[in-house]
Design goal:
The chain is mostly helical and about 220 residues long. The chain contains 6 helices and 4 strands. A two-stranded antiparallel ribbon has the order 1-3. The protein has a two-stranded parallel sheet with strand order 2-4. It is rod-shaped, with a radius of gyration of 39 Å.
Amino acid sequence: MIDVQQGSVPTTWRAADGSAVTFTEARSEWTRAAHEVLAATATRFNNFIVNTELAELVQEESGIRTAVKWQHWLPVVLDKVAELCHKNNEPPLSALCVRKNQTVGTGYRYILELAGLPIPDDLEMHAAAARWQCYQHFATDLPADGGLPTLPPKVAAIRQSTSQDLATAEAAEAAVKRTRAPRSTAAIPKPEPLRKPVCLSCHVELPANKVCYYC
């Protein structure tokens, strides 16, 4: 992040008096605020927060606002929250922040790097388990059995739709294979060759004039 405020109007300022704030200072305050907002989010089982909403709440809670787009500073703040949670032996609260489509995306990988864990094949399911850890630590409305890691509704719906489409495609493919399979046909008996007339006395085959020359 650049700590230089360009022009007479600061790009990052305190909402109370409009005084300029460096990004280094702002990032520190935003990290604290983000940790608090995410911890509050985790008090409700299966709750999460969209990145745009978190960016607004962080500015509101910290009292420090910026004209810089959230895409340029919120990911860094989430990394700092992940580091803070890792240092304090807390569950990874930054896993509660999702994109508009309710996925965590590749930014979640930093949590795994901090923990020294390999990147799983199913990043979203791993993030669901991380959120479940947050609920176990902070939630006030846990189910009696503690609940289970759960994918956000949009992600779960897409996966269910994909599974159904796959099942439909497999059924259609199987049907096509059945129609293309060679049909077993009963063997058609060959007609017996016509027997030429024979002499009733000597049983020798008769010529065309049907006259036996041997009798």
